Amino acid sequence: MAKVKVFQVNLDRDMNRVGFMGYDFVLEKQKKLDASIYDCVFDGNVETDDLDNLFMMCNLNKPNGYVGRSMSVSDVVKMNDDYYYVDDIGFVKIPFDETKTQMSKRFAL
Prior knowledge:
- It is a single chain.
- By secondary structure, the protein is an alpha+beta fold.
- The chain has helices at 23-30, 51-60, and strands at 2-9, 38-46, 76-79, 82-86, 91-94, 102-103.
- It has a six-stranded mixed sheet, with no helix packed on it.
């Protein structure tokens, strides 16, 4: 079991159009990942501590409370205390300032 948060680019705030792009492209486009364009779409516990299993879960059988799109490239996952960027292939451990993110408005629905 792992404590997980999933963050997705809010396309309305994505002025550089980096949503759904690989990590290298993001770094070329804006030098660092801009946490302020992200919304938290899940905050809870899941029955896995494996990122690949979490990816499958968020695409096939979303955990209760998950309000985002299917997990895709450019999403950020916090598992326990580490942050990972969902890249074109696999995950990249990254620095990420969660305090700059917003809670998805869909949580309120």
